[in-house]
Design brief:
The complex is a heterodimer of chains A (about 400) and B (about 80). Chain A is built from 14 helices and 16 strands. With about 400 residues, chain A is of the alpha/beta class. Chain B has about 80 residues and is mostly helical. Chain B has 3 helices and no strands. In chain B, α1 packs across α3. The chains are: A alpha/beta (about 400), B mainly alpha (about 80). The interface between A and B is medium-sized, with 19 and 15 residues.
């Protein structure tokens, strides 16, 4: 009998080799206590959180918490059902209304996670004979949506308008086309040139879906995302997003002005065949989304903190994935896996949590220590973070000549 | 007119720089098994073939193309379309 797990042996051995070096597993962190959007206790140690995508710090917002508690009392712990059967409560409608108001769009559909929102939208919109044209660095949920569906999948070079144009030109003019873009690419923290990309997609008769998972809350006049800041709102057919970043809870969504949008509730399998979000979660999300409509001071603080971290790291000689701070993600480029894990662990032992990212999650085989900022980070916290980055780099010999 | 022999020869040229271990290349050489190509390298190779012949090779076509010979067949077919 062949062991179905033998296909994982290479990865098991790689991990074992890494852990034998004496480093701890970067993918098994436990947060023992969470004190605020920026502080937790890990291994009994007070730790500054600098890798949680909690951009707007809404996880402990008093109004959000109160809304969740009240929904828990009034509607119970869970819905035990699909959105299309018994799983749509008042709170789910209110959450979709909040999204429609936030985005100024006619329709909103709430999914149980952001992953499922992409899985559902991508696999349902483009069917057999249609084409999906996606950025090569697209998130796993977009690729998985492609594989769940039956469309032909064409990839273009990351953020390249020229390559997108070339690939669209080769497709049959009459075929249905969906171009999928992201506002912010979460590994390197770079943003897409949406003005150019969307114009090309429209010129070739494609519909456009933009994932704003990492842009919602602090790009554009209303905080809708990079597409709003780029001034292309009228040409974007679908915006997909998540509640697990700026909104501060969990869930996913798609908003659109398409007149036939509502039919998706019956044909989109990752929407239909799963349980809906618990009442407390949609209540938290709706409250948070409405507060994010008036969060200009928080947006300012988030950008201030991002500039401070990016500038501070650069001044200390760290190599960063973007020349300037393009989003609230600041990624530090690392030379190899072992140095990355050692540096990551040194940071953790000094009381700073960042994400370690490695291929295949990262593009082009790069290793990263990825930081994401929160509007609730204080300048003093970031001074501590910068100091500890220097200490960790010295401890692992990051800047030592090879 | 591009015939299969020309396509095959050019595919070999495109693979060479992605073959650091200098594995012998033939009709039955497989991308995953023999060349140990990861998925990103495969996708880059696909992009270079698309540009070479101005064709579209959808990613969902790839699981059926395991060897260099199969890719040469598929490209020849796409070019003639």
């Amino acid at each position: 009998m062949s062991d179905l797990f033998s296909k994982f042996d290479a990865l098991i051995n790689e991990r074992a080799g890494l852990l034998d070096l004496g480093v701890r597993d970067p993918f098994s962190i436990v947060m023992q206590q969470v004190k605020s959007p920026t502080e937790a206790v890990i291994d009994g140690r007070d730790t500054i959180l600098l890798g949680t995508y909690n951009y707007m710090g809404m996880t402990f917002d008093p109004d959000v918490i109160a809304a969740g508690k009240s929904a828990l009392d009034e509607f119970g712990a869970g819905t035990t059902g699909s959105r299309v059967l018994n799983g749509t409560y008042q709170g789910h409608k209110e959450c979709e209304d909040a999204l429609k108001d936030f985005y100024g769009m006619d329709h909103a559909m709430v999914f149980s996670t952001g992953y499922q929102a992409n899985l559902g939208m991508v696999s349902t919109l483009a069917g057999k004979g249609d084409f999906i044209i996606l950025d090569a660095d697209s998130h796993a949920s977009i690729y998985d949506g492609c594989y769940l569906g039956n469309a032909d999948i064409v990839r273009f070079k990351h953020n390249s308008a020229e390559d997108l144009e070339k690939r669209l030109r080769r497709l049959p003019p009459e075929a249905g086309k969906l171009v999928i873009l992201e506002g912010v690419y979460s590994m390197l923290g770079d943003i897409a040139p949406l003005k150019e990309l969307v114009a090309i997609a429209k010129a070739h008769g494609a519909m456009v879906l933009v994932d704003e998972a990492h842009g919602m809350g602090f790009f554009g006049e209303h905080g809708r995302g990079v597409y709003e800041a780029a001034g292309v709102a009228d040409d974007v057919d679908f915006v997909v997003g998540t509640f697990s970043k700026s909104v501060g809870t969990v869930g996913g969504f798609c908003v659109s002005n398409h007149p036939k949008f509502e039919i998706l509730r019956l044909v989109c399998r990752p929407y239909t065949f799963t349980a809906s979000l618990p009442p407390a979660v949609v209540a938290c999300a709706a409250t948070s989304i409405r507060k994010l409509m008036h969060a200009a001071p928080k947006r300012e603080r988030l950008w201030d903190m991002t500039r401070k971290l990016h500038g501070g790291l650069k001044a200390r000689g760290f190599r960063l994935a973007t020349e300037t701070p393009e989003s609230a993600i600041v990624s530090v480029l690392m030379p190899d896996q072992e140095t990355t894990v050692r540096m990551w662990q040194a940071m953790l032992e000094l009381g700073v949590y960042v994400n370690m990212s490695r291929p295949p999650a990262t593009p082009a085989g790069v290793f990263l220590l990825r930081c994401s900022l929160c509007a609730e980070h204080s300048a003093a916290q970031l001074d501590t973070v910068l100091e500890r980055f220097e200490m960790a780099a010295a401890a692992v010999g990051l800047f030592a000549p090879a | 007119m591009t015939d299969r022999a020309q396509v095959y020869a050019r595919i070999i040229e495109l693979i060479e720089p992605l073959n650091p271990k200098k594995v012998a290349l033939g009709e039955n050489t497989s991308f995953a098994g023999d060349l140990e190509m990861d998925s990103l390298t495969v996708m880059d190779l696909v992009a270079s073939m698309e540009d070479e012949w101005d064709i579209v090779m959808p990613l969902n076509m790839l699981p059926d193309l395991e060897t260099i010979g199969q890719v040469a067949d598929a490209v020849t077919k796409l070019v003639k379309k």
